[in-house]
Design brief:
about 180 residues; mainly alpha; about 10% strand
Length: about 180
């Protein structure tokens, strides 16, 4: 007896909670925000216009190299486009639990509250460092030193190793 699937394939990218990338929605949203046509994005990415259309619809999944070219054309990190969607928060919790040893996360207490600390994510990049960077930008947003759009751009292009050290602290990611 086959399990019931309610007429859809698992992980087909069109249903919340499948842990599939959100790239179709993100590509379209970023393209429109940057006032690009599908044709212009295709030219900037070195792919066909029909491929862009297919990726935005979620009908086809781009190879990593193609998604990286799209990300660069849109001025965001590849990881921003390829991050999975979590449905219920418990899915995010399990993602942390499944990766605690891989990344070395530690649970500790800070001001009598549980906190995630540590975790080497890559050479010289730590989870703590990421949280510090995020905290600084959130404080700038709350203090109205940056706009919500600038904060959104920072989140889309976050990379602790490749930000221009500009006096205004607002410079966009410049790539590798």
């Amino acid at each position: 007896m086959k399990p019931a699937t309610s007429g859809r394939k698992m992980f087909d990218g069109k249903h919340k909670g499948d842990l599939t990338p959100l790239y179709p929605h993100k590509i379209k949203k970023l393209r429109e925000k940057r006032q690009l046509t599908q044709k212009q994005l295709a030219e900037l990415s070195g792919i066909s216009e029909s491929a862009v259309r297919s990726y935005e619809l979620g009908d086809c999944k781009p190879k990593k190299e193609v998604l990286e070219r799209i990300a660069m054309a849109l001025g965001v990190r590849l990881e921003y486009l390829s991050a999975p969607e979590f449905g219920p928060s418990i899915e995010f919790f399990y993602a942390l639990l499944e990766n605690d040893e891989l990344y070395g996360y530690t649970i500790t207490e800070i001001n009598d509250r549980p906190a995630i600390t540590g975790g080497l994510m890559a050479v010289g990049v730590t989870f703590d460092g990421f949280l510090e960077d995020w905290s600084k930008m959130k404080k700038k947003l709350d203090a109205k030193e940056i706009t919500r759009e600038e904060y959104g751009n920072w989140k889309q292009a976050y990379d602790p190793g490749y930000w221009v050290n500009a006096p205004d602290g607002k410079s966009l990611w410049v790539g590798k």
